[in-house]
Amino acid sequence: MKSINTETYPPDLQWLISYLQVRCQQVAKPGTTQVLPHCPGLLEAEDDQAWLLPFSQDERLVIALALANASAPEIWGRLLADAVDAGFDEQAINRLGLVQISQTKYLQASVGTARFLLAKDDEHWAFWQLFLPQAALRRLGALALPATRAVPAIDMVLQLNSSYQCQLLTQQPWQPQYGAEFPATLLTTSKTWDDLVMDEKTGILLDQARKWVHHYDEVRQQPGIVGAKGYRLLMAGPSGTGKTLTAALLGQAAGKPLYRIDVSNIVDKYVGETSKRLRQVFDLAEQHDWILFFDEGDALFGKRSNGTGSSNERYANQEVAYLLYKLEEYQGMIFLATNHKGAIDAAFERRFDSLVTFSKPDEGTRRRLWQHFFGQANTLELDPRIGAGNWRELAEAAPVSAAWIEKFYQYCVMQTTAKRDRYISAEDMRTYLHWFSAERGYFDGKAHRLFLRELVG
């Protein structure tokens, strides 16, 4: 392939082209002394390429073939022309394993192409081991291969999975897009643990969960624990009490991507569809070591019927059984949040390593929350009377959640931005509480009695 300027290709494709050239010479001129080139080296410090470290040289070559199919199919036309020029007969050309794609001018490399490059005449058995389910190419999901076959067909075109193709072509981590095939979104936060204001008991439990996720990979390597499945955390409590923020912060502490599952898009009325969608999510997550977060997971993890009812109930129980199996087998971490702990099936609950119960903040915690959002805010300038009682008036007036206080803080920022004045007087605060409560309740009828004391001195 002398007519191809290899310098325009990434290192793995440059290596593939060199490998193809030497292998064709070996076939055209038996006994040639040319040595097949080694794949480009990798350093563990190179984060953009570190994901290739688990693969052997032969597996890297298969990945390079699939990459050429996706991004440089012109290589195969040139290879065929060079093979003809080198005197390949029809049998030798067929051994190249190139497949013509219908309605295009392009050829594609197949499993047969990989066999031509890698399999010695007496070692075909070793080649096929590359494609076994337990081998890295399939275990780590590098190739799009049929799950129903032990090994792929010899004429099957080699295709990279979307994630590997993205990483090889862009040198950027792949993030799947939300949709019916993958009903989940990446959950991140710019907040810190200081923004999660909890009572003492919940804080202690969350500290234990932080230790689990931070040291999880290290713990799994300890004697007697090797082979243990992933960490499971169940969070229960009313809306607005910090479950989602906790999940995001734990993902941050673990240093792993955390995907929030849209349970409403997972559960399907058609038989088998729920399991199919779950399988897609779990397979992708296992390949990339993602944390899965099932938010408001009651619909998936709820109590089963006794199985004596309608066929729909029996099928629903089968879906639950499948989820129990995945919950047991998944190697990574799983977080589940529910507003109603009593609705969770006992079989699921037993499989969680930690349970953290979130409750609406008590008066002392509410005081700390009002202080957290309003007392240290550089965005607002408050009338001294508002916080004069150490935020006691606001904390005593209504049993609001942390989410309510945060949204009200954002509402106040909006009001001061609109009037181009950071200052909030006691009268402003009473008015804003009254207006905001008209939409969300709690302070309606109470706001006018707040911040009336005179400041002394």
Automatic annotation (TrEMBL):
SUPFAM superfamilies given in the database record: P-loop containing nucleoside triphosphate hydrolases
Protein name (database record): AAA ATPase, central region
Family stated for the protein in its record: Belongs to the AAA ATPase family.
Pfam families reported in the protein's UniProt record: AAA
Keywords: ATP-binding, Nucleotide-binding
GO molecular function: ATP binding; ATP hydrolysis activity
Domain AAA+ ATPase, chain residue ranges per copy: 229-362
Source species of the chain: Microscilla marina ATCC 23134
